[in-house]
Design brief:
Blueprint lengths: L5 H10 L12 H10 L3 E4 L1 H11 L13 E3 L4 E4 L3
Antiparallel strand pairs: 1-3, 2-3
Length: 83
């Protein structure tokens, strides 16, 4: 089971509109349940984001940080959510 800290949950709640047309979670509890269900991951840094996309065979044109699935937590970590 994944453990998502408050910074991760807050980041997802505030920015979920970049990936979904309407909100999928209204509070941290719903956000955590959603992220666990879709097996979201938190990685440390840009290189790990790039590695994740390579390992998953996901082709991203341009900067991987511009992908809708990538959320910048703001502390050097990134949340990757496959919608």
């Amino acid at each position: 089971m994944h453990e998502f800290d408050e910074a991760v949950l807050r980041c997802f709640l505030e920015n979920q509109g970049q990936l979904f047309p309407e909100d999928v979670a209204e509070n941290e509890e719903e956000a955590e349940a959603f992220l666990e269900d879709c097996m979201a991951v938190v990685v440390d840094g840009v290189e790990e984001v790039e590695e994740y996309f390579e390992e998953e065979g996901i082709d991203v044109e341009g900067n991987v940080l511009d992908a809708d699935e990538v959320f910048d937590i703001g502390d050097g970590r990134y949340l990757i959510v496959e919608g």
